[in-house]
Amino acid sequence: MLDFKRVLLLGTGPASIQLAVCLKQQLTCKLGIAGRESARSEQFFAAIEQNNHLVQASIQNEAHRAMKGECLIEHIYKGYGSITGEWDTLIFAVTTDAYINVLKQISDDVLKHTKCIILVSPTLGSNSLVSNYMNRFDKEVEIVSFSTYLGDTRWIPDRAHNHVLTTAVKKKIFVGSTQLHSTNIGVLSHLYEQLGIALEVMNTPIEAETRNISLYVHPALFMNEFALDAIFRDSSTLKYVYKIYPEGPITQYLIRDMLAQWKEIMNMLDNIHIKRLNLLQFMTDDNYPVKLESLSRHDIDNFSQVETIHQEYLLYIRYTSLLIDPFSEPDIAGKYFDFSAVPFQKIFINSEGYLDIPRMPKEDYYRTKIIQGICKYLGLECPTLDKFLHTYESKLNEVAACNHNQRLSFAFTVQSFEEDLNRICHEIGKSLHNNISKLR
Known about the structure:
The chain has two domains: about 5-210, NAD(P)-binding Rossmann-like Domain (Rossmann fold, 3-Layer(aba) Sandwich), CATH 3.40.50; about 215-440. The chain is about 40% helix and about 15% strand. The protein has helices at about 15-25, 40-50, 100-105, 110, 125-135, 185-195, 205-210, 215-220, 225-230, 250-270, 280-285, 295-300, 310-320, 360-375, 385-400, 420-440, and strands at about 5-10, 30-35, 55-60, 70, 75-80, 90, 115-120, 140-145, 150-155, 165-170, 170-175, 200, 350, 355. α1 links the parallel β1 (about 5-10) and β2 (about 30-35). The chain is globular.
């Protein structure tokens, strides 16, 4: 098992509990969980203490029974600065914008002994970011990036915060490592196979990070006036993320922007020598399929080669085909499951008493800003990304001004993420320089 004898999970959200149960069931390892001290995490720490360090994961679908179980957590750390001992592997189950902040709080003595770091749900550039920080130690640490978290895990209402429910599990996830022929990737592949998840190993971590559908669809879906009004305005009328206008934001213009953004990111990938992806194929084969009566195999496979107007047409068909779940069973009235009825979450008062922004689009802001920053570093134009971010940041300023008498979370601040971008671009620059040197 090499680097999985002593494993420390960073983060106190539902994902950490589900991962802890999976690790304990598949591997013989000592487990710890660390998290920041906050009003929200206090519920987790209190529940852990009251239940003698026992955590539990339940499932919604019996097909996912491999996720079900309970286990003991040997070590609990309140605050990342309180972590002690030698940990072979650190698993980051925190938001991507928190990676450097968490690393800075962990003592150098702990990090010096770390052999492997796993990023459960990174964004494009996260591996470069963490690698840059770990370069300060005179040792080689393996850093592994998954494309995304393994499913959908949430707290169970009215239950203690040591018990979670997994409602969905992905069929396929991509992974990449800083080490070629990684033994740890072999262990993880076997573990995920036991969970019923196929793990596709990519040539590099950043290539795995590009295989996250949120990068390509969330900016268009959330950073538009319709969506932002639904999130920030006080209205009793529900609006839905994946519905056609006027029930949701999807119009021919949104589809046009989604396609244009994909092309901007593909242009960026070309410049850093990462393999492109066929957006429609990725949407249908690796995320949510549609009936072949709606989208033919030929259209899916040849999406990247057809004209722009044809691509927009195919993307629009894809979203209209998923207004209902085409694979669900109709009821007696012929109604299929309303697959697209995912409501926009509204701004809310968080556990610290601050007005806050939902995870989507708060996390998408960081992801999109990082991609824009990489494009700028490479000297590439990205007008669609610029448009999304301008729309979002204008809304932040507008809502902050209207709520100046309230305590606002830091999410309402327009940010540059300059330190993270500098670290990421430094590593990308090194990689490009090394590639050029090899060609000489």
